[in-house]
């Protein structure tokens, strides 16, 4: 891929020069050959100059489309008015007309086509004094109209291609933004939860090291366990990000049903967490389980960090096509004054991605209740 891209770029750069060189050669040889087969219409130095200037000027068509069209039209009409042999010199006019249409100068091109047609009729029947011929007049008109129609067709194709490229680019940008948000959520969930527990336990250890040193060991053990799990989750996330061309892993980073370790770590941090299940427990899509686990983890982390609570509950309600999560605490945080930081925003984004909702209200016990609904029917 990396080797093909420079080659295609090089071809795009040189093909206009190759095309113009071929057109110049064909125009020159065609004009000389036509002069040999049309008595009295020899191509002199001016005719040769015109047959060279017209195709060569097309190299500037992209930068100066209207100017190039005017030059080619004028030189071609001069060529015809001086009685030079009929030949491929008019091809440059056709290309200049098509180029202007493609670049958006449609009115200029159609007016230029009309001027060219009128100029040809005048030079043929007035300047050259050739007899009037309706078939010839209609034939010239048909060719001129065909050139303009081809230009319009090419313009439509080019515009559609540009729209398609922009749509693909926008899709890629959107996917990249979604991927960045997903990575940010994963990193926040992994780091914030474990680091919060580590911070709490480190504070406990510092507080007890001189007073009750026998209670320091459990705190250090919790720090060790949390840091080990954090490193494992980070490695799993990094491995997942590295798998660009490989199939996605069959199992998500975490499963929400394995909440025992989360509850145990919370207990070491001074928060007693209970779990309740209603409805028929069943396997769920991995995306739902991962989102549910991360949301529960973030909610419990917020309780540990901000709520000053000693009890929390996790309720899992299995509906027909919906999983409802309720995380309550008995802390002293006012639900109406909670600031929506990265954690709550990440929880809401996870729920929205699965067609669900997130609400933060006052819990019956006086703390905060986080209610999340997640669709489980893969719709």
Automatic annotation (TrEMBL):
Pfam families (alphabetical): HATPase_c (PF02518), HisKA_3 (PF07730)
Residues covered by the Histidine kinase/HSP90-like ATPase domain: 289-376
Keyword field contains Disulfide bond: no
Top EC category: transferase
InterPro entries in the cross-refs: HATPase_C_sf, HATPase_dom, Sensor_HK_TwoCompSys, Sig_transdc_His_kin_sub3_dim/P
GO CC annotations, alphabetized: membrane
Transmembrane segments: 14-33, 45-64, 84-102, 107-127, 133-156
The keyword Zinc is annotated on this UniProt entry: no
Entry EC no(s): 2.7.13.3
The reaction(s) this protein catalyses: ATP + protein L-histidine = ADP + protein N-phospho-L-histidine
Keywords: ATP-binding, Kinase, Membrane, Nucleotide-binding, Phosphoprotein, Transferase, Transmembrane, Transmembrane helix, Two-component regulatory system
Organism domain of life: Bacteria
Start and end residues of each Signal transduction histidine kinase subgroup 3 dimerisation and phosphoacceptor domain: 179-245
GO molecular function: ATP binding; phosphorelay sensor kinase activity; protein dimerization activity
Protein name: histidine kinase
Biological source species: Solicola gregarius
């Amino acid at each position: 891929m990396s080797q093909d891209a420079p080659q295609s770029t090089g071809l795009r750069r040189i093909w206009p020069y190759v095309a113009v060189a071929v057109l110049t050669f064909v125009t020159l040889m065609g004009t000389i050959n036509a002069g040999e087969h049309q008595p009295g219409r020899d191509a002199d130095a001016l005719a040769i100059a015109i047959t060279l200037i017209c195709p060569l000027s097309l190299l500037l068509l992209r930068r100066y489309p209207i100017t190039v069209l005017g030059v080619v039209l004028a030189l071609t009409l001069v060529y015809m008015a001086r009685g030079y042999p009929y030949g491929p010199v008019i091809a440059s006019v056709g290309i200049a007309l098509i180029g202007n249409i493609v670049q958006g100068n449609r009115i200029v091109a159609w007016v230029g086509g009309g001027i060219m047609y009128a100029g040809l009729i005048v030079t043929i029947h007035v300047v050259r004094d050739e007899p009037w011929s309706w078939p010839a007049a209609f034939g010239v008109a048909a060719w001129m109209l065909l050139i303009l129609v081809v230009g319009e067709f090419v313009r439509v194709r080019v515009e559609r291609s540009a729209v398609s490229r922009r749509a693909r680019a926008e899709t890629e940008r959107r996917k990249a933004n979604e991927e960045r948000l997903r990575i940010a959520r994963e990193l926040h969930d992994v780091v914030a939860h474990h680091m919060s527990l580590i911070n709490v336990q480190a504070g406990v250890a510092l507080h007890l090291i001189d007073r009750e040193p026998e209670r320091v060991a459990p705190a250090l053990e919790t720090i060790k366990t949390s840091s080990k799990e954090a490193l494992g989750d980070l490695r799993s996330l990094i491995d997942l990000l590295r798998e660009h061309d490989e199939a996605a892993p069959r199992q998500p980073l975490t499963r929400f049903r394995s909440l025992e370790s989360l509850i145990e770590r919370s207990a070491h941090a001074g928060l007693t967490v209970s779990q309740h299940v209603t409805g028929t427990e069943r396997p769920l899509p991995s995306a739902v389980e991962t989102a549910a686990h991360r949301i529960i983890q973030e909610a419990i982390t917020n309780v540990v960090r901000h709520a000053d609570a000693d009890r929390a509950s996790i309720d899992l309600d299995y509906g027909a096509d919906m999983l409802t999560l309720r995380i309550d605490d008995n802390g002293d945080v006012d639900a109406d004054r909670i600031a929506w930081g990265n954690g709550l925003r990440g929880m809401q984004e996870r729920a929205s991605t699965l067609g669900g909702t997130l609400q933060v209200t006052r819990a019956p016990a006086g703390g905060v209740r986080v209610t999340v609904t997640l669709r489980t029917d893969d719709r």
